[in-house]
Design brief:
Largest sheet: 7 strands, antiparallel
Number of helices: 5
Structural class: alpha+beta
Radius of gyration: 57 Å
Number of strands: 19
Distance between the termini: 162 Å
Shape: rod-shaped
Strand content: 15-25%
């Protein structure tokens, strides 16, 4: 099994056992193994070269020698082969595997770093790996897979606004209805509000007042939210109004409204009630569903009256037109007229004829 070495880290190798080159079993304990005797082959290399660390190897026991190497000797990831061919002993070859420092520390149980995982693909899909990275590394910008319209570091905040990062590019009002989550480093907690207005030119999102105005380094995430449906209105069961319990209505499903103010004034309430009562009194004659309107004139009767008036007016006009033929100017005062002698004679004739007709019927000027 290859021994693991930590990349670019000085260490000491244990080489051997070195045994006699004649019998192949007697331990060689007095070998002089110098820097030049220790040859290294690194992953991808084409030749072997002596180790960089200059210290000679030291015998420890049973033909085993310790051999120091430095950071240059371990600077290449992968297989590191050590070869020593010392006179009087059989040659040896030992293989090591150089790994990244984080991997080495994790496998060796060292504290503080952990094992690094660099996933370049998920189920052979590199895009999936990129999306996973985007979802969790808090890179500024949108994260569509998590429903995040935009995220980043805010420029500033007030009691009712947040100025998003300068690179955020939403048209005016397009962020209205989105949920804005804000983390102020001074506060150390998140606050969420619904965006009620957005202005592109200033990168400013308006919200209901924050519980505490975010401060310090302010990070944010702007989450998409579905718009309210225009065709499917949600049912609302109101049990309180302004924190006070609502009384059970007299008619189920019909709320009862008890006004105390109109246009900010209590006096208007009484006036409103008085006016409503008066309207009800004035319109009571109409009755339910307009029953009281049946006694009014019909269109047909109005047309009859109209025709009668037309006839009478025409008859009166004939008479008045004839008056001009019966008048003459007296020559005295301008604008004064009197019946002509001819008109008087005709009028007298008509009168006397009428009198004769009346006498024959039993009527007299004395009324008897």
């Amino acid at each position: 099994m290859e021994r693991l070495l930590k990349q670019s880290t000085a260490t000491t190798l244990l080489l051997g056992p070195f045994v006699d080159e004649t019998d192949g079993q007697t331990a060689e304990t007095a070998l002089t193994i110098s820097q030049a005797d220790v040859l290294l082959w690194k992953e991808g290399g084409t030749t072997l070269a002596q180790k960089t660390e200059s210290t000679s190897c030291t015998h420890r026991s049973n033909g085993l020698y310790t051999c120091p190497i430095d950071t240059t000797d371990t600077n290449t990831l992968g297989i590191l082969t050590v070869s020593v061919d010392e006179s009087g002993a059989l040659p040896i070859r030992m293989d090591y595997f150089v790994v990244a420092a984080a991997v080495y520390d994790s496998l060796k149980g060292n504290t503080g770093t952990g094992l690094r995982a660099d996933a370049v693909a998920i189920s052979s899909d590199t895009t999936a790996a990129d999306n996973l990275e985007l979802a969790f590394d808090d890179t500024a910008g949108p994260v569509p897979h998590l429903g995040i319209i935009d995220q980043g570091t805010a420029q500033s905040a007030t009691a009712t606004t947040l100025v998003l990062r300068a690179a955020a590019t939403f048209a005016d009002d397009t962020a209205i209805g989105a949920v804005l989550a804000v983390f102020g480093s001074t506060q150390g907690y998140w606050q969420t509000r619904v965006v009620t207005d957005y202005v592109l030119s200033t990168d400013t999102a308006t919200v209901d007042a924050w519980t505490v105005t975010p401060s310090g380094t302010i990070t944010y995430k702007l989450f998409a939210a579905p718009p309210a449906s225009a065709s499917s209105v949600p049912a609302v069961n109101v049990t309180q109004w302004g924190g006070a319990a609502i009384a059970t209505p007299s008619v189920a499903g019909v709320p009862e409204v008890d006004l105390t103010h109109v246009a900010g004034a209590t006096t208007n309430v009484a006036a409103l009630a008085t006016n409503v009562d008066a309207i009800l009194t004035d319109t009571a004659v109409i009755g339910a569903t307009g029953a009281g309107l049946t006694s009014l004139a019909t269109q047909a009767s109005v047309n009859t009256i109209d025709d009668f008036l037309d006839t009478e007016v025409a008859a009166i006009k004939i008479v008045t037109d004839a008056l001009w033929t019966m008048l003459e100017a007296p020559g005295a005062s301008p604008g004064e007229y009197r019946l002509s002698a001819d008109a008087l004679r005709r009028t007298y004739g008509h009168w006397t004829g009428a009198m004769r007709a009346s006498r024959s019927s039993g009527w007299s000027s004395s009324g008897r």
